[in-house]
Amino acid sequence: MKILVCTDGSGQSQRVIEKAAQIAAGGNVEVTVIHVYETSKNGPYRIEGNETLSEELNRQLIELKEQEKEKSKKVLSEAAKALEKKNINVKTLLKEGRAAETIVRVAAENEFDIVVLGSRGLSGLKKMFLGSVSNAVLHEIKASVLIVK
């Protein structure tokens, strides 16, 4: 069985990791942890008549994107370590893009049997029952989905 475990670094992600570990404890399970981060598609910026300011804005944009990527690597690494402590072999995937679309695409391309994710993540907007990512994944994916509360 192939399991895709989705993490965003939220407190709920810890429960997702625990549930995935319970499933994987049955043996003969391939576990992959994925973290998807979004960065701004804006830029490069050009301010007419002020090349210095344009260069500075673009430099800061690149720096922010790199900081987000490094933060995302840490989130992914911590999730993988939590599973490895339970003697579970883990593969990791770090992807840039829109979370729901990327999870659905990766699950299909790699033929995962089950996708494990939280009902809500770091989003400031709460849906009535499910977060926007879990809701979109649930309705778009062909694999089985386990949503952890």
From TrEMBL:
UniProt signal peptide: none
UspA domain location: 2-149
Keywords tagged on the record: Coiled coil, Cytoplasm
Location (main, coarse): cytoplasm
Annotated coiled-coil segments of the chain: 47-96
Pfam families for this protein: Usp
Keyword Coiled coil on entry: yes
GO CC entries: cytoplasm
Cellular location(s): Cytoplasm
Sequence similarity: Belongs to the universal stress protein A family.
PANTHER family, sorted: STRESS RESPONSE PROTEIN NHAX, USPA DOMAIN PROTEIN
Record-given protein name: Universal stress protein
Organism encoding this protein: Dethiobacter alkaliphilus AHT 1
Taxonomic lineage of the native organism: Bacteria, Bacillati, Bacillota, Dethiobacteria, Dethiobacterales
